[in-house]
Amino acid sequence: MLTTGVVPALFETDERDALASSVRDQVKAAGLVETNESCWRFYVNLCRQNLHVILAMSPSGSTLRTRCRNFPGLVSATVIDWFFAWPEDALRNVAQYFLAEEAIPEESREQVTNHLVHAHLRVVRVAHQFGEELRRHYYVTPKNYLDFISNYRLQLKENKVKVTASIARLKGGLTKLVEAAQAVDVLQIELSEKKIIVDEKTLACEALIKTIEEKSTVASKQQEVAAATQIECEKASVLIAREKEEADAALLEALPAVEAAAAALQDLSKADLTELKSFASPPPLVMSVCMCVLILKPTGQELDLDWKGAKVMLSNANLITLLKEYEKDKISSKMITKIKTFFKNPDLNIENMKSISRAGAGLLVWVVAIVKYHDVAKNVEPLRLKVKTMEKEQTIKEQELADLKATLDRLKTELDNLSTQFQEANSELQGLKTQADQMQKRLQAASKLLAGLGSERTRWTKDVDSLNLQSERLVGDCLLTASFLSYAGAFSFDYRSDLIYRDFFLDIGSRNLPVTTPFRLESSLTDDATIQKWVSEGLPADEHSVQNDETKNKATEISAKLELASFTKDEITKAREVYTPVALRGSIMYFAMAALATIMKMYEISLASFLTVFHTALETAKRDVVLEKRLRFMVQSITEMMYDYTCTGIFERHKLMFSFQMTCMILSASGDLNRAELDFFLKGDTSLDAASQPKPEDITWVSGAGWKDLLCLSRLGEAEGSSVFGSLMSDFANKTSEWKAWYDLEAPELADLPCGYSDKLSSLQKLLVFRCFRQDRVYNAMKLFVMAVMGEKFVQPPVLDYARIYSQSAATAPIRRKYGKIGWNVSYDFNESDFTISRKLLSLYLYKAYEDHDEQLPWGSLKYLIGDAMYGGRVSDDYDRRILTTYLSEYMGDFLFDDCQRFYFSRSGFDYVLPGALDGNSSPLALELGDYVATVETLPLTNSPAVFGLHPNAEIGYYTNMSKSVWKDLISLQPRSAQSGAGVSREDHIGNVASDIQSKVPEPVDVDQIRKRLGLTPIPTQVVLLQELDRWNLLTARMRVSLGDLQKALVGEIGMSDELDAVGNALYDGFLPNLWRALCPKTEKPLGSWMEHFTQRFKQYMDWVANGDPRVMWLSGLGIPESYLTALVQATCRAKNWPLDKSTLYTRVTSFTQDSQLPAIDGTKDDTGCYVKGLFLEGASWDLERGCLAPQRPKQLVEELPILQVIPIEASRLKLQNTFRTPVYVTQSRRNAMGVGLVFEADLYSTEHASHWVLQGVALALNTDY
């Protein structure tokens, strides 16, 4: 958009046509041709004229610079408006503008503005220091300054209101004291009047109580009589009921006969009676029955006892109904007596009567039932009379009881009325008494209050004066609170305290601005209630002053309350402080985890996720009633869960580093970490000078860097006078053999140190010794250190089950990468599919050969498909391809199945051989599938380097590189606020190193003068010299300028740029700054060793200038060493008239190790070519006596090659035998994926097959990493 204004393919064709058509009228008006293309160009130009692009980017870091390089349009097609930091005048003018209308005393206004400017500039410098020391970046912008001013104005306003309100409240209290005294007098008068009324009401209530008591006595007596009468009535009722029940039960005996009579009557009809009546002279028995019925008078008429009377009765139409409804209880005994005279006739029975007359039989049944009923009722009658008598008496008693209850109700009504009157009177009396008591209490409380606050009037008056002064001091106090709110949030506690309580507070005092002394932020920004709320929510409470507003007690009581509150606060604080170790451990773990992002951005951790794990650790920690044990369990749970959580999310190579860093931070928090010892362990001797004492020639097993570190270690702690290493050098010199025996151990970290140092040294100090002697064992020794301090748990991170993945890995090629550059120059992404396809190809060809009965296996095809196509297709480096083809040549061929001589893939600790055995006749035995499976099961789980064709020293190299990697990562995690080992500050240390280096940087070489001296046609090697000197001047100029600027920036003369900051960091850590690295030969040396290399380079250049081409060239001292070798071939070709494109060079290792051993030039020999020194052999050693390659010496990874003679020759004449073509690299990092790093190829004499040295990873390097 910036460069062309067009984004290709932004619109579809139809969209583009529509947009072009939208401006067709404008195109026509402009007089242009109305084609689609011209319309589209017109539309694009129209957009360009109206489109404005604004890009806002931060200049911090290198991002903007990189973008400008990648996108030139950012510079060429824009107008860059740089927003620099506001200068001091701008800061002052902004402050004056915003504070113009604030109520600030005029004598203080200018100094307030000056302090605002000072505070902002000071925070900018402290923020830079904060980033340098703690590596936590805080960017201070003008926005912070505007917030600072805004907060200051807000704090002034709010605190003015607060103080004014406090003054008003105290003045109101003083006014209330006067009003209270007046109110007490009025209250006394009202209380006297209330007492008179209370006395009158009390007499009236007493009289009413007496009347109630009299009435209650009468009612109580009446109640007793009524209760007794009621009891008698209840007893009589029970007796009557029982007697009546007995009579009714007796009457029930006659009911069956009555019911039978009713049934008999039911069967009778008027016809039956008419039949009976028709008798002129009835049968005797019928006559008897009719007489009996007449006697009972059912019709109620007085009829004669003859048949005539009977017929009259029978003529009654309602006779049957009358018989059914006959009143049985009116029968007299006389009637029954008469009837019974007829019953004396034995023939008068129901059976006989049924045979004579049906109606007569029914009447007889009725008569018999009536008689029987009467006989029963006659016996029951006395009971019935008794019951009636009792019921009459009961009625009388109930009437008496009702009268009594009526009387009681009346009395109760009267008593209720009296009680109501009494309650009303008593309530009124009690209300009056309560009012009187309240008035009395108020009078007493007011009197106490006035007495107690008599002294408070003076204090409140003083408080008003104090608040008035505080109002004046708000000018300075609000400056401190506003600066805290605007700037201090991102800083740690120490930085915050230094800024607020030291720098800003002292600056305000120096400007004579009113400020509270001593000043506390807590008093200005919060109150007790808020702090207690924070405490209840789990946050710590800061120190604060407790204020108590109680005015209801005496001054002495108020003082006691304050003392009690202070004591309670102290007790709470003590209780909280018990848990400080738990909080401290959580803080350590968080910052240990958060710092990992410095190593790799993907290790970022959020506070929320940390708190989740932290709370889980607290909840799952083992409980115990003993507080000390509980705290220990909590700390242990936090440490273990945080360690497991972190290790689950980081790479394996960083887990031990994290354990070590965590352990050091824990030791540092407890005051048990010696920072100087830790710095030495991580960096070694970072001095720029050579070893102060030369290494003895017979001590070949100690490296040069190790010897220098050993000398430095012996002086460690001398300044403090507490060095435990003071006698180390003398002990080493006196018992060198004992140290050598310990050095030769396979695992010296598991054995005691010589000379009793295991008992003298701490776990950390032992690591310092390992750094000097056995860097390859430092990695394992660090594990022992962590185990000694923290426990075995923290060197055994949680492991996922990768057994299945491991078993499916692509065997040899990828695992060789473990050994770094000695394995492969480039780390290729060989994967499972490569292995699977190669295995299938192998199976396919072997099966086909078996099916076709081929006598020869197609090894050539297999090697090509697997070596060149599958794996080789990924290999870009020629020497890596040589390794790959060598593996195939070594492990693919008919020799695998040789019947005469068995082939072993390796015999390093285990016989790696194909399954099966040879019998006595040397013929192979038949094998089953189970035999192959059994052989696979016997293979070791771990393999030594020899299995891959490497020397056992490769394992040492692997662990050495791991140690260096851990050191590098740990250095990046260390706080930069720590002092150096010499006890000086970080800035002073960097300044000293910069000054030391600057003193060693020579003046620029006058290349023009040298060019004139060499003439117009310099020889090729002289051209190389001039080019080298040009590059040397560029390097020294950059070093000189950057070192000078760095020293100025350290003292504040100029700003500290990112480049200068990076240079300072590198100097402090003992690394070569990247700013210089781009202009010097590739190197992996630390700063001290590089400076020795730097000095030697200059010495060789000056010798070359003064004496001509060196007879022995130190190639690593050249910026581009291959240019010198090319010039050497060119010079020889010119001298001997060889074609340059058909010439090459070969090498021969001499028997000379020193320049002085070379034979003198006598002119008789062919002196073409040159001698080269300073080559280091890796992967093998050199047998000086036999003049050939030899296996590496134990624990010696690199050794210097004798002087090498480089001889130009015509390619057609070159005939080499028994030599190994060895690559020569600039550094031990060898060549990268871009092919950079290879210098030339040397020919080294060998009695072994070349494949042996290929698999050993033999190479030469111009520089080591120490």
TrEMBL record:
Phosphoprotein listed as a keyword: no
GO molecular function: ATP binding; dynein intermediate chain binding; dynein light intermediate chain binding
Any Pfam family hit: Dynein_C
SUPFAM superfamilies according to UniProt: P-loop containing nucleoside triphosphate hydrolases
Coiled-coil regions listed: 387-449
Start and end residues of each Dynein heavy chain C-terminal domain: 961-1261
Keywords, alphabetical: ATP-binding, Cell projection, Cilium, Coiled coil, Cytoplasm, Cytoskeleton, Dynein, Microtubule, Motor protein, Nucleotide-binding
GO biological process: microtubule-based movement
Annotated Gene Ontology cellular component terms: cilium; dynein complex; microtubule
Domain Dynein heavy chain AAA module D4: from-to ranges: 1-153
Major localisation: other
Domain Dynein heavy chain coiled coil stalk residues, every copy: 169-502
Dynein heavy chain AAA lid domain residues: 816-954
Cellular localisation: Cell projection, Cilium; Cytoplasm, Cytoskeleton
Name of the protein in question: Dynein heavy chain 10, axonemal
Annotated organism of origin: Phytophthora fragariae
